[in-house]
Amino acid sequence: MAMPKSEYIWMDGNFVKWDDAKIHILSHVIHYGTGVFEGLRCYDTPNGSVLFRLKEHTDRLFNSAKIYRMEIPFTKEQINNAIIELIKKNGLKSAYIRPIVYRGYNELGVNPFPCPVCVAIATLQWGKYLGADALENGIDVMISSWNRMAPNTFPAMAKCSANYMNSQLIKMEAIVYGFVEGIALDNAGYVSEGSGENIFAVKDGIVYTPPLHACILPGITRDTVIQLCKDLGIPIIQEMLNREFLYLADEVFFTGSAAEVTPIRSIDKITIGEGKAGPITKKIQKYFFDIIEGRIEDKHGWLIKVG
């Protein structure tokens, strides 16, 4: 299925028609992966359209750029305003938003410094990332043969385009073998994350998730779920997890801006718990969606109104 088009894309301060949003084939980002990006959602609620954790996503975009020595030629406020104005201009009530900062066209050598830092933002309609019924019924996944990058190779804390070549290998392998998604281990063999999601496991009423030093992206939905567990009085522990711990868990689920809170029903064809969303996953899911869809108070200030 082709990507659904919106009318405009924001590029370096200008609203450009979707089909005219182009870059040069010799742009540095195409050849060397020199881009950092974000993914966040706008939700349609009874109180109007809201952006979920806009500030935190923009902060992470700037942090990713900082790691790669990319000076973004706009302020955080300008990026936030551009996102809001783009949603309005495209007439969207709900959307997935993709800001990207990238090295553009000037020189072709590995050295990125001579190439300009460019910024673009797209908004599009994107449904449930891991399938329409995934939130209820869960998904089947596998442990990937591809590991996450070792520390001090590629910075896992940066949401960098180049890092997602590793993610593509994980995702393609899973699809070829008949699974929806793959789970990567780190270079020491501990559980890291999915190709584009953080992972949580539930055992005996306690929620576990790998820490940042398991070569994971510091996920904003991950951080949200950690806070939701605290709100709900559910014990949450960040520690290194063995692969087999996932097999024996009562529940396992993915989190991410695209994946939201998606249960995992089997790993390597081993059924997890009852083979569907478990009670704690459902409790977290409900609390998460009640907040972002405006049914209960947003006491953490996570939602920004678009209108």
UniProtKB/TrEMBL annotation:
<dbReference type="InterPro" id="IPR043132">
    <property type="entry name" value="BCAT-like_C"/>
</dbReference>
<dbReference type="InterPro" id="IPR050571">
    <property type="entry name" value="Class-IV_PLP-Dep_Aminotrnsfr"/>
</dbReference>
<dbReference type="InterPro" id="IPR033939">
    <property type="entry name" value="BCAT_family"/>
</dbReference>
<dbReference type="InterPro" id="IPR001544">
    <property type="entry name" value="Aminotrans_IV"/>
</dbReference>
<comment type="pathway">
    <text>Amino-acid biosynthesis; L-leucine biosynthesis; L-leucine from 3-methyl-2-oxobutanoate: step 4/4.</text>
</comment>
<dbReference type="InterPro" id="IPR036038">
    <property type="entry name" value="Aminotransferase-like"/>
</dbReference>
<keyword id="KW-0663">Pyridoxal phosphate</keyword>
<keyword id="KW-0028">Amino-acid biosynthesis</keyword>
<comment type="similarity">
    <text>Belongs to the class-IV pyridoxal-phosphate-dependent aminotransferase family.</text>
</comment>
<dbReference type="InterPro" id="IPR005785">
    <property type="entry name" value="B_amino_transI"/>
</dbReference>
<protein>
    <recommendedName>
        <fullName>Branched-chain-amino-acid aminotransferase</fullName>
        <ecNumber>2.6.1.42</ecNumber>
    </recommendedName>
</protein>
<comment type="pathway">
    <text>Amino-acid biosynthesis; L-valine biosynthesis; L-valine from pyruvate: step 4/4.</text>
</comment>
<dbReference type="GO" id="GO:0004084">
    <property type="term" value="F:branched-chain-amino-acid transaminase activity"/>
</dbReference>
<dbReference type="InterPro" id="IPR043131">
    <property type="entry name" value="BCAT-like_N"/>
</dbReference>
<dbReference type="GO" id="GO:0009097">
    <property type="term" value="P:isoleucine biosynthetic process"/>
</dbReference>
<comment type="function">
    <text>Acts on leucine, isoleucine and valine.</text>
</comment>
<dbReference type="Pfam" id="PF01063">
    <property type="entry name" value="Aminotran_4"/>
</dbReference>
<keyword id="KW-0100">Branched-chain amino acid biosynthesis</keyword>
<keyword id="KW-0032">Aminotransferase</keyword>
<dbReference type="GO" id="GO:0009099">
    <property type="term" value="P:L-valine biosynthetic process"/>
</dbReference>
<keyword id="KW-0808">Transferase</keyword>
<dbReference type="GO" id="GO:0005829">
    <property type="term" value="C:cytosol"/>
</dbReference>
<dbReference type="GO" id="GO:0009098">
    <property type="term" value="P:L-leucine biosynthetic process"/>
</dbReference>
<dbReference type="InterPro" id="IPR018300">
    <property type="entry name" value="Aminotrans_IV_CS"/>
</dbReference>
